[in-house]
Protein 1
Amino acid sequence: MKSAISDTLKVLSAIVLVLGVIGGFVFAFILADMVYSGFFYGILYFVIIVLSSGITSAILYGLATVIELLESLNDRMYEISDSLDETNKSMDIVTGKGELLGEDEWKCPKCGRVNKNYVGTCVCGQSKY
């Protein structure tokens, strides 16, 4: 399941990258001529602006990927939880009464009664061991 947040971050990262390239070009070749009349400074400004927007874009895209992976992990956790619930439901059939045997209980093999562990003999007379 993809989230709207991760999709939004991916789109935002693309927008930042495109605007960074356009802004770098505009700033480098139009404004740099006004301040420093030199081709070297124009290229330098362009490279700095494109690199900074590229890094920002990569960070945003990375966050989107992390969010997707966390959501995938969360979905997998719920699948495992559901399968454990199904396992527990199948264990309910074993007791015959729709209840799970706890760690502190045992089921009498003779009558099927569920007894606490501290009870050594069932009411039907069957020993725990």
Protein 2
Amino acid sequence: MSPSRRQQKIARVIKESVSRTIQSRLSDPRVTGLISVTEVDISPDSKNATVYLSILAPGDEKAPDRAFKAINHAAGHIQAQLGRDLAGRTCPHLHFEQDDKVKKTLETLRLIEQAQHEYEEHPLIDDAAESESDDQEL
């Protein structure tokens, strides 16, 4: 079932509020790298919301996990700020999940680039076979 207009509006406000809070109001040193809210799913009763975070920290493999733990630790602060930003009687309870889509996309692009580079260095044998068959036809 697709979300209602109200749920879409609440999800947009949550996304903006959580992003702004993480970027400008959290002072935890574990929160490093590029952190973005990629998606927000709202339950049908609008009492719960799952916030998907993409955390990229080049050079340090453990930094995304540390940042995610810090964000979970600051969930109460993020929830309170959302309550101030959200116009309405109730504020959904936030649940955070790591979103690996961006990381997987970047890895796929890196692999494609690597394959292209390897192909340019060592063309496929088929190219050599084609030139041999062209020579035999003459």
Protein 3
Amino acid sequence: MDFDKFLVNFFLFFFVIYFLGISFLPAFFKKLVASGVVLSLSFLGKEAIQKGLEITVSSFSFSIINSCTGIVSFSIFAGLMAATNWLSLKKKVLYSLLVVPVFLAWNVLRISLSSFTGSYGLFVFLHDSLWVLGTGLILVLYVLAVDNYGK
């Protein structure tokens, strides 16, 4: 498969998965992330108050939105899997399903560490920096899945 075809397949599947995901993403996932953030902050000794999907830490509040669930990371990973033509459909689906809890946990950790700062300015900086680091996680998981295929 040439690189142009790979990119077209990747972006096609990425956008389809992403827009289907944000359109039909169960509220359960957002509630799960919100509860996980509050629980992890409590474990770290930081008080957080949760009202639905809104979390208040120190002097600022933020809401858990679709992007906080890992749907973007999952869409990128699933797009990469779909565009990889030497993997069977079974493997693509299996690997894509296996990463769901990884991306959920990563996002709980990312939001928890970001909100632990107690400052909105630091929150945004750390939140975005950890998201960039998370893209590395996506690539590592993809390489492991593809590398594992040959074994």
